[in-house]
Write a structure and sequence with these properties.
580 residues; alpha+beta; 8-stranded mixed β-sheet; 5-stranded mixed beta barrel; elongated
Length: 580
């Protein structure tokens, strides 16, 4: 036996200073492990206490799912968890993450490159309790998160990952990597629930009625289709603005409500101004305001905005819609026909790379039609085109009783319905809609409308029974309406008087006399060309959607009692397949 070290009590082990420090560090680490284990135990109630499990089958009812999720979240909050944090700092969007780290090779991880990404969970796959895969989506792009308990610093890995469900918005802080199977992933070290989805997220949603009623679910389930449509719409609007701005037009904003509804033949929405104690109308068109701006000295103006018409809803009509109207002093309808050809041809080429597009007018399963935007566009005279289509000659003058009787008989003969009042203008409109417009598949101008149909258009230089007006039809639907503006103040009053007579006869779309507008004309409106285009219909054509609801984020719908679609009815649950 060796001699004991001087000063050391007999029977105790003699150790060096270095060994003593090593043991003290080991004891400290052991204490820290014990404290961490105690914290985990406090944060995660024992299974014996009956804590609800977050995962639940898609087969349950929406109400059962909602109640189950609420119970899980309440239990999580009771144990100190936070379900709706105020802030989560991200370093990358999903797009930025993919762009920066797509070069990584299979099995490669950048441990020295911390990242943080927030996105919505669209699929969850458990390889084991300690290895969980998430499919994340953001702006139509997908990214995998591979959560591994061995690399996590979460207080309770199992607890937070058991809580997460499809539809939740989650923040992952970790490092970038690519799995051995080649899937670009974020490898989270810490996971934070940012916003739970209380309701079950459908895996598919194809029912068009439910898609339009719950557009937010439509976007979650059919993001690619919705995004494609509204990117095209956005490109159209940006192109229109650029086209006019480059030609020195001034974009303006005019009132959305007025004491009269003028500028178009349409039934208005009526509201009430409490402070003024007067009836007001939502605008059906900005035309009369814009022409007053030309009187005031703004020679080139345009407005892109909403109009409101209290009319029917169908595949091409919505009560609230977007149009653009423009007015150019010292121009006429011939100038606007040329500018229309330039605008549409250039726009279609910029968006699609060709002047020829296919359009499924009758739905995606029906044969498509080809629409050719190559200028110049064909021109069909209104009256002559109708006479040629029906093989008749209309009696003159067009305003005569004889002509009206002839048109009534013509409509009866060809089974064309025209609800009362059967005015000459309404009969002509119905007959042209039946026999001329269907021929207009590629862009076609129908020109020189009768004066009795165009109260704001200037008479034709070659025939005073006609006006210098055109409508552009595409895929058999009206897209543009334009004319040389009527700037004779006295003549305009007479035209408005005729409209009043038509309204008294039962035509609720006829216009009233706008005294303020008439007075503005008495100060002098220069020779002017006016033009209007329906943005929603153009978006339909260029995005290949045959329903106007597809190009409106929130189209008008009839109310229904149950507002949330049942996921089980939307489609059967998709089988989850791992892509590690």
């Amino acid at each position: 036996m060796s001699d004991p070290q001087d000063g050391a009590p007999q029977g105790e082990e003699t150790i060096s200073k270095n060994e003593l420090k090593r043991r003290q560090k080991a004891e400290q680490k052991e204490r820290e492990r014990a404290e961490k284990a105690a914290a985990k135990a406090a944060a995660a109630p024992a299974a014996a206490e009956g804590a609800p499990k977050a995962t639940i089958s898609d087969d349950v009812s929406p109400q059962e799912y909602l109640q189950h999720r609420l119970a899980c979240l309440r239990e999580y909050e009771a144990s100190g968890g936070v379900t709706h944090p105020h802030k989560f700092h991200t370093t990358h969007t999903v797009a930025e993450f993919i762009a920066e780290f797509s070069h990584l090779e299979a099995g490669q991880t950048l441990e020295d490159r911390p990242v943080a990404v927030a996105a919505r969970i669209f699929n969850k796959r458990e390889s084991s309790k300690k290895l969980i895969f998430y499919d994340l989506q953001q702006d139509g792009l997908k990214l995998q998160a591979m959560a591994n308990a061995s690399g996590s610093i979460d207080v309770d890995f199992a607890r937070i990952h058991d809580l997460l469900a499809r539809g939740d918005i989650v923040g992952f802080a970790g490092v970038p990597g690519r799995t051995k199977k080649g899937e670009l992933s974020i490898l989270p070290k810490q996971t934070t629930l940012l916003t739970p989805s209380l309701r079950m997220l459908p895996r598919f949603l194809k029912d068009t009625e439910q898609r339009f009623r719950h557009r937010y679910i439509d976007m979650l389930c059919n993001f690619d289709h919705v995004q494609k449509t509204f990117l095209v719409r956005n490109k159209i609007i940006r192109f229109i603005r650029r086209f006019f701005d480059e030609r020195r037009f001034l974009e303006v904003e005019t009132p959305m409500m007025g004491a009269l509804a003028g500028g178009a033949a349409a039934r208005p929405f009526i509201t009430h101004h409490n402070d003024l104690d007067m009836r007001m109308y939502m605008r059906i068109a900005p035309e009369l305001y814009l022409k007053q701006l030309v009187v005031g000295g703004f020679d080139r103006v345009y407005e892109l905005g909403r109009q409101f018409r209290n009319e029917g809803i169908d595949l091409t009509h919505n009560p609230e819609f977007t149009s653009v109207e423009a007015y150019m002093a010292y121009a006429d309808y011939n100038d606007w026909m040329e500018m229309t050809e330039q605008m549409l041809a250039q726009m279609v080429m910029e968006i699609h790379g060709t002047h020829k597009i296919t359009y499924h007018r009758d739905g995606p399963d029906a044969p498509p039609m080809e629409i050719d935007f190559t200028p110049p566009f064909p021109r069909i005279p209104f009256v002559a085109g109708l006479e040629e289509a029906l093989g008749v000659k209309l009696p003159r003058p067009l305003e005569s009783d004889e002509c009206n009787a002839f048109l009534v008989e013509l409509a009866r003969k060809h089974n064309v319905e025209c609800p009362p009042p059967t005015t000459t203008a309404r009969l002509m409109d119905k007959l042209v809609g039946e026999f001329v417009e269907p021929k207009c598949v590629s862009p076609t101008f129908i020109i020189d409308h009768p004066t009795i149909m165009s109260p704001l258009a200037k008479w034709h230089r070659g025939d005073k029974e006609l006006t210098e007006r055109f409508e552009l039809f595409v895929a058999t639907k009206e897209l543009v309406n334009a004319y040389t503006e009527l700037n004779d103040a006295m003549y305009q009053r007479d035209r408005f008087a005729d409209q009043v007579k038509a309204k008294d006869a039962g035509d609720d779309e006829a216009q009233l006399i706008d005294e303020n507008f008439c007075q503005s004309l008495e100060f002098g409106l220069p020779p002017t060309g006016g033009w209007g285009l329906g943005v929603d219909r153009l978006a339909m054509f260029l995005s290949d959607n045959n329903s106007i609801k597809e190009v409106l984020l929130f189209p008008a719908m009839r109310p229904e009692a149950n507002s949330v679609p049942r996921p089980a009815e939307a489609a059967p649950a998709a089988a989850a397949t791992a892509s590690h």
